[in-house]
Design brief:
- 2 copies of one chain form a homodimer.
- Chain A is built from 7 helices and 11 strands.
- With 252 residues, chain A is α+β, with helices and mostly antiparallel strands.
- Chain A folds into 2 domains: 18-146, Jelly Rolls (Sandwich), CATH 2.60.120.10; 162-240, Arc Repressor Mutant, subunit A, CATH 1.10.10.
- Chain A has a 4-stranded antiparallel beta sheet. A 4-stranded antiparallel beta sheet of chain A has the order 2-7-4-5. Chain A has a 3-stranded antiparallel beta sheet with strand order 9-11-10.
- In chain A, a hairpin with a 5-residue loop joins strand 4 and strand 5 (85-91).
- In chain A, helix 2 packs across helix 3 (135-161), helix 4 packs across helix 7 (234-241) and helix 5 packs across helix 6 (206-218).
- The longest helix of chain A has 27 residues, at 135-161.
- Chain A is globular, with a radius of gyration of 19 Å.
- At the A-B interface, strand 5, helix 2, helix 3 and helix 5 of A face strand 5, helix 2, helix 3 and helix 5 of B.
- Chain B binds a DNA duplex (30 and 30 nucleotides) through helix 6.
DNA sequence: CGTAGCTTTGAGTGTTATCAACTCTCGTGG
DNA sequence: CCACGAGAGTTGATAACACTCAAAGCTACG
């Protein structure tokens, strides 16, 4: 059962060891040492693929695992009785999903793949046990959860106090930065989400989002081809989106 | 140095042992056993008092401690360059402040006492070390942070997708429930915050908040005497405020 | 190609913000 | 003890930002 030691056996080449993973800088392992990584490998389950529209978990599902996103984009959504939707987050590779389920041992939202997605399941119970033994891992988990809180607080500022224009600008800047951290362009965005999703994220009607894209384009801020967005004037966009006091240092 | 064993020495009667604290059910200790509580006592610092308007920490302050609220109400606020304010949370006795600072080792918001407040400082480094030894404490911290995320996600739903009316109703219901958990009335609210604070929390103008209070009163939902609110029709208020799918089980 | 979903654009409306004046409360000092 | 003043709260009038409804154009996939 626990026959994998050191160099992780890859079953049919599907599973990559954490220490070989291209996302090791961004994902959980940051700050862990060689031995810790090996221990983590033993905990992390198979790498699996979800197709567009499939869910990682649904509202009310019991907490079994956390999920490390390896590739693709995921949205998490909360639903109101009358059908109103709030997207609580978009997740990109290197980010961890599901920590909001720890509180009540069940997921308080639904996580859906916006495109083909690769994830590693991390059984929570095992992760917690390992964190008990590895101080760096415990700390890293605290940090990741804290970062999630900081992100949500910024979203609160956006939804509570920023105009539609400011919200979209801030979101684009944020996406660009996160894409850049993955080694991709910070100018050319390929949005995985629809205008509707974006509206549900920013607290706007999809028509408002569409109009804003058009206006930003007219003003020479960006160039829009459907979901392909090119950022032409990053400075001005940042200026619009960040009336915020300070940039989020979303370290690791 | 480590001369306190079992019964905690109270210096001038200022410090109460965690295990004797009236909030032990709500605060950090939940789920900890006798020995764990004694260990926690050794970590928790003096109990101190803040007067209305004083701050526990300010935006940018380095993370030193987390803070367990023993009495009174605290608001946390984020500030935009042009002066716009977002209240990111109101904290009541038994709740833990400051976890959002773990991410970047500095506080991303300012925490201010809305009335006379009592807090216990919990040096974070020491707490983390203790959590490393006490599994129940580690788990409890994960839960507390997860709960904070769930709360923020609900706030996102409120700010993004609920009307002004729904937001205020939801907030009142939420305050009532939290007050009830402290053993106080769930009908008679004594709000510690101004209409302005409430507006900055709900993403509304203070005038809108005021108008809503008046309207709720006309409709027989509540009775308003300044900051004293009596809930007359809790069911209808809940109905208005919670288009949400499920109640937050904000356990512990 | 045809169809279904996504996106854009337009017209009209409404909720909530803004500006402004007035009232109330409470603490302080004459 | 009462008057005063400052901050907090209420209420009204007006305006604006973003929503809703509607229709047409586009894209992509079968």
């Amino acid at each position: 059962m626990r026959d994998r030691v050191g160099a992780v056996v890859t079953i049919g080449g599907i599973k990559l060891a954490c220490k070989d993973c291209s996302l090791r800088e961004l994902c959980l392992p940051l700050g862990l040492h060689e031995a810790d990584l090996t221990a983590l490998d033993r905990v992390v389950q198979r790498r699996r693929t979800l197709k567009k529209g499939e869910t990682l978990y649904r509202y009310g599902d019991p907490l079994r695992s956390l999920y490390a996103l390896k590739g693709g984009t995921v949205k998490t959504t909360g639903l109101m009785e009358d059908g109103r939707v709030q997207v609580t987050g978009f997740y990109m590779p290197g980010e961890l999903l599901g920590v909001d389920a720890i509180n009540a041992d069940q997921h308080p939202c639904t996580a859906e793949a916006l495109e083909t997605v690769e994830v590693c399941d991390i059984p929570f119970h095992a992760l917690e046990e390992l964190a008990q033994k590895v101080p760096a891992l415990q700390h890293q988990l605290f940090r990741i959860m804290s970062r999630e809180i900081v992100r949500d607080e910024q979203m609160l500022m956006m939804l509570g106090r920023m105009t539609a224009e400011e919200r979209l600008a801030a979101a684009l800047v944020n996406f660009a930065r996160r894409q850049a951290r993955l080694g991709l362009s910070d100018r050319l965005l390929r949005l995985a989400m629809s205008r509707q999703d974006l509206g549900d994220y920013l607290g706007l009607a999809l028509e408002t989002v569409s109009r804003l894209f058009s206006r930003f384009q007219e003003e020479g801020l960006i160039s829009v081809h459907g979901r392909q967005i090119e950022i032409l004037d990053a400075d001005r966009l940042r200026g619009m989106g960040s009336g915020m006091a300070g940039e989020v240092s979303v370290s690791a």
